[in-house]
Amino acid sequence: MILSTEDKDLFYRLNWSLLFYVNKKYPVINGIDTPDFKNQDLNKVLEIHEKIFANTELIDSFVAENPFNFNQYELDIIKSWKNFVKGRFYIVTHLKNHSIFLKDDEQKAYGVIGLIDEIEDITPPYEPSLVGTVLLPFKGKIIHYGLFQFHNILFGSGIKKNIKVNYQTAKSKFGIILSLDTPISETKGSDEELLRFYARSEANRAQFWDEIRQLLRKNPLFYKIYYQEIGKSNTRRVKKRLSEIGLASRWFAIFEDIIIASGQTEQEVKAQIDSLLPEAKRDSVYIFRHVLK
């Protein structure tokens, strides 16, 4: 996804005006008389940007002086750029509405849209890739500032796995961050989502056992979620085996890796669970339907 032509023109008009203002105060590019940086040396444009991100008071002074007579709406957009996010990002994947940028030094994932070109078309053709850039808020969305520093690194399976884990953890904690206009906070129920992620496979449970224990100590009610996820993680193997032996379609209840009940209907299975298990254990059971194929 990219900005509309109208929004693209607005961004460059505002951004170049700010760059022009800063260049006048701290000259980097000589002989520039209008706020047009289209054909300028990108390294020098980058240097001007760096001055802004190193001293956001320049944004405040630009807004206060308003040398280009922008309206309040336009000034508010420029002022919002003080909420920039700068650094290195793993581009994890490209979705329909945005590309996912995962911060390399913290577990936060941002949904970013392109300016002129689709991000997918101007970044390395493999996933994940590593880039340096700056993310900016713009009209309720997140964009990049137009410049990328590419790190041509092909990651091995171990690093790819860690990036995937960090991405899943980021989604569980914060969701996909789609705006920088408000403070970023953990999503409601993020502990529950984290536990589901940690417990979703045997490999995850081994890798995140310390984190699992901390969450269970923090909230003992999470034990039922933990055991449900263990049961759920075993259903694929169980379903495959049931199909191999030709078992007819029906409902099953599994506790960890043990089938404890089955029936023609879900209600029948629940009734069996009530008669088999103490009340405290019933919510820890995972119920699923096997369909013979």
Helix content: 40-55%
- Broad structural category: alpha+beta
Reading off the top of the CATH hierarchy, the class of the largest domain is best stated as: Mainly Beta
Mean pLDDT level: 94
Q: How far apart lie the N and C ends?
A: 40 Å
Number of helices: 12
Q: What fraction of residues sit in β-strands?
A: 15-25%
How many individual β-strands?
A: 10
- Gyration radius, to the nearest Å? 26 Å
Shape: elongated
Q: Main β-sheet: number of strands, strand sense, barrel status? A: 7 strands, mixed
Low-confidence stretches: none
CATH architecture annotation of the largest domain: Beta Barrel
Query: What is the number of domains?
Result: 4
Task: Report the CATH topology name of the largest domain.
Answer: OB fold (Dihydrolipoamide Acetyltransferase, E2P)
Helix-strand pattern? HHHHEEEHEEEHEHHHHEEHHE
Question: Keywords for this structure?
Answer:
single chain; 293 residues; alpha+beta; OB fold (Dihydrolipoamide Acetyltransferase, E2P); 4 domains; 12 helices; 10 strands; 47% helix; 19% strand; elongated
Q: Can you lay out the helices and strands and say which pair or pack?
A:
Elements: H1 5-25, H2 42-54, H3 57-65, H4 72-80, E1 85-94, E2 99-103, E3 109-112, H5 119-122, E4 129-138, E5 141-144, E6 149-151, H6 157-174, E7 176-177, H7 190-199, H8 202-207, H9 209-218, H10 223-244, E8 250-255, E9 258-263, H11 266-276, H12 279-282, E10 286-290
Parallel strand pairs: 3-7
Antiparallel strand pairs: 1-2, 1-4, 2-3, 4-5, 4-6, 8-9, 8-10
Helix pairs in contact: 6-7, 7-9, 7-10
